[in-house]
Amino acid sequence: MNSYAITIKTKEKKGVLVQITDIISSFDINISFVNLFIDKKDIAFVNLELEDVNNITSLIEKLNTLDSVLSVNIHRSANDIFGKRILIYGGGAQVSQVALGAITEADRHNIRGERISVDTLPVVGEDAIAEAVNILSRTPRVKVLVLAGSLMGGKIVEEIKKLKKFNDLIVFSLNMPGGVAEVSDLVVTDPIQAGVMAVMQVADTAVFDYRKLPENKRRF
Q1: pLDDT for 72-110, tens place per residue?
Q2: How confident is residue 1, by pLDDT bands cut at 50, 70 and 90?
Q3: 15, 126, 139, 145: which sits with the fewest CB atoms below 10 Å from its CB?
Q4: Rounded to the nearest 5°, which phi and psi values hold at 181?
């Protein structure tokens, strides 16, 4: 059995998603990822990543029988294209320096065939950052979060605790007051180094793993 990623272009109307998933279910196929958005008025795109597919040709033919379906295309999955994600949150200057280290290091590994992407969110304020941490439980492919700022605590700490209770997301932070450093997996003073180490943590072509460090040696 094989895995596939498909995009279905449809008319935007009620019941379309139910019709699509009913057909997929009839083929005993598992949906591992779904994303739906409306591009223009009355036009929608449904992106699906499918597992346990025996006959993709028959599936596409069946989907095309729906009056609401305009086209079905096969493509590489988001994981194949974007790979493992590093997210960087915090103040603009610190975020840019962490991103510099992360992007430079990701480039070295991606040249060797890996796929590691780096996303940034320059955001300040306890509530805004806490909300951004909260949404990570619903965000796919994120492997490491780097918190870059001069002071973070309170609600941000609580959201990190909740996130780590149910997810295996790794959290790195810059060395800062406020409590975030105490709940992070690794604390790094230099922002460029923090970005480099975040990428090395997830890269298959690197040998760094913070878990190999003694717990009392996880602050640099």
Answers
A1: 999 988 888 888 999 999 987 899 999 999 999 999 999
A2: low
A3: 15
A4: -60, -30
